[in-house]
Write a structure and sequence with these properties.
The chain has 180 residues and is mostly helical. It has one domain. It is built from 7 helices and no strands. Helix 1 runs antiparallel to helix 6.
Length: 180
């Protein structure tokens, strides 16, 4: 996977700026630490919980939720890369029924912008993790989990920045000329 901006295609106004490519790829890395921690809970690693606190994670439903949540977060972060890659402008041909069709700019921008706003709100309290009591965790676990979740604070703002970059590149030429 190259972090260099892709060449412009016939469907794109211009290549994404280098900072947007880096930011899009960074989103997948920001989500990884917390996802790996949740996945470690599934086979029985207490992950910083006390014996009593970990009990809630020993059910099938809790394990399925930890795996599902981790995969969905990583998938959502990966979709940000589509805002800087050709497959975010033209649906890959291997996808049945819609492969090869152009992605309308707003079909990517609106969900990405809503997702960025939601992620910003969801993770806004993470910097204050250590001010909340966590009686079900060991002191070391409380510290480590807090550190693993801190990168998520950047997920929403980075997604918003990449979304804005995508929108500016894909808007009609008459709007780009007026803005310049």
């Amino acid at each position: 996977m190259s972090l260099h901006p892709p060449s412009t295609s016939a469907n794109s106004a211009s290549a994404p700026p280098r900072w947007a490519v880096w930011a899009a790829h960074l989103t997948t890395l920001l989500v990884l630490p917390s996802g790996l921690w949740r996945i470690a809970l599934v086979p029985g690693c207490p992950g910083g919980y006390t014996a009593t606190g970990f009990g809630a994670f020993e059910t099938f439903e809790a394990k399925a939720w930890m795996l599902t949540l981790s995969m969905l977060c990583e998938l959502a972060a990966f979709l940000t890369i589509g805002l800087v890659r050709p497959w975010g402008e033209v649906v890959p041909r291997w996808i049945p029924l819609i492969g090869g069709r152009r992605v309308r700019p707003l079909a990517a921008v609106v969900p990405a912008a809503l997702g960025a706003a939601a992620l910003t709100v969801i993770w806004a309290d993470v910097p204050w993790w250590w001010t909340y009591p966590h009686e079900d965790m060991t002191p070391t676990g409380h510290l480590v989990v807090g550190l693993l979740y801190q990168p998520l604070v950047l997920w929403g703002p980075l997604t918003a920045a990449v979304t804005l970059s995508h929108h500016r590149r894909r808007r009609p030429a008459r709007h780009r000329a007026t803005a310049a």
